[in-house]
Amino acid sequence: MLWMILTLMAALAAVGLAIPLVRRHDAARVARGSTAEVLKGQLGEIEAQAATGVLPPAEAEALKADVKRRVLAEGRKTEAPSRPLGERTLLILALGLVAVVVLAATGLYLKLGQPTAASSPTLAQGQGALPPGHPGADTSAMIGQLEAKMKAQPNDPEGWRMLGWSYLQVGRNAEAASAYGRAADLDPHNAEYRSAEGEATVLAAGGQITPQAEEAFRKAVSLDPADPRARYYLAVEKDQKGDAKGAMDDWIALLKTAPPDAPWAPQVRAFVEKIAADRHIDLAGRLPPATAAQAAETQGPPSPSGAPGPTSDQVAAAGQMSAADRQAMIAGMVEKQAVELKANPRNLEGWERLIRARMVLGQAAAAAQAYRDAAKTFAGSPGELATLRQTATSAGVPGA
Fold it and tell me: Measured between alpha carbons, how far is 344 from 342 in angstroms, rounded to an integer?
């Protein structure tokens, strides 16, 4: 019924457009006739005024001559050729053509069209959907599934932790902090949930240890005094408040108590050594001996500039700066590293640092692109590809 109504409306609209076109010839002919009649009337009025003496004879003759010229001009206009069909026949023909076009279009749509079909994939992608195989497609799908799950099961702390982790991968740091906070509230004895909430809060604040982040870290330490993430960031807070010595002491203490296989120890060690070098602090005898894995991590091939690229911990804790200055410094370091790697791409450690830094900054898409570029560079080196893949996976790079 709906399609019949729409077809009728289309037909009426087409008829309304066709009728003026059919009548255009007759309207022009009527207009010419009306103009000639007006001119003849003006000629009669001039003669009457001349007969009564209102117009002088000379002026009346001049006006009459002008009107006669206009009458002759109208008469000389080319008459449109007569139409082979009458007005009624043309109107019927126009309406018939309109009906045929409308009915044919409707029939074709009913035959081939699909009113219930979804939007085209290209349009959907342009409106925000990620095409299959896109680096962020898996993470985005995971987020949607987890959000739906948490609406149905809001008392699952592990589900909130996974949702917080997923938010971090796409740079939604404030939402990640909220999700981690929900997990910590549901499982108040889990120090990891609380320190993760603090870290996400720091990232959302551009690297600044806010009061909310400090509270989360202190709660984590009260639950687990050995929690490395909370201890690290509490040392960062000291450094941001001007207690550089206290911060360095805490970082060194953290490294001394690190397990031999702690995955975070190499980055913290490199960070501490860099800070010490910049501030001319003597670390002789203060750091524990580096393991073979840590030595490989911290003393690998230098970047083309001769200085190591930014680590994830450097990005998260650039010392005594305002939030704006620190963010500008971090962005500059990361972009400089990216430019250097384009010029000299055979630098595995540089690619690893760039990937980690991008993720810390919440630039998941840029991290995924860096991972793809690095994978192309080391396509013929299975060992380096495996190392690169492990780094990207541990950092949470989409599509790794």
Answer: 6
Give the least confident one: 30-39, 50-59, 160-169, 381-390.
Answer: 30-39
Is 201 exposed, middle or buried (CB count within 10 Å of its CB: 0-12, 13-18, 19+)? buried
Give the whole-angstrom CA distance, residue 378 versus residue 349: 12
Q: How far is the C-alpha of 211 from the C-alpha of 167, rounded, in Å? A: 22
Dist. CA 163–CA 241, nearest whole Å: 32
- Of 97, 84, 107, nearest to 15 (Cα)? 97
245 φ, ψ to 5°? -65, -45
Residue 377 · residue 346 · CB < 8 Å: yes
Contacting residues for 301 by C-beta, under 8 A, at least 6 apart: 347, 348, 349, 350
Cα 295 to Cα 370: distance, rounded to the nearest angstrom:
24
Tokens, residue 85: 């069909």
Query: Which pLDDT belongs to residue 85?
Result: 55
pLDDT digits (tens, 9 = 90+) for 97-133: 667 766 766 665 565 544 433 332 322 222 233 344 4
Cα R_g (the chain), whole angstroms: 41
CA–CA dist 18, 91 (Å, integer): 9
Rounded distance between C-alpha atoms, residue 198 and residue 203, angstroms: 9
Calculate the alpha carbon distances from 146 to 143, 160, 192 in Å: 5, 8, 20
Residue 56: CB atoms within 10 Å: 10
Q: What is the pLDDT of residue 207?
A: 86
Is the Cβ–Cβ distance between 264 and 317 less than 8 Å? no
Alpha carbons 4 and 259: distance in angstroms, whole number: 77
Q: Supply the angle between the helices 87-112 and 2-52 in degrees, to the nearest 10.
A: 150
Alpha carbon distance 120, 143 (integer Å): 23
* Tokens encoding 13: 């609209």
SS3 content of the chain, % helix, strand, coil (to 5): 70, 0, 30
Q: How far is CA 5 from the centre of its chain?
A: 41
Q: Is the pTM of this model over 0.70?
A: no
> Helix axis angle, 173-186 relative to 157-169, nearest 10°?
170
Closest CA to 352 of 304, 307, 387: 387
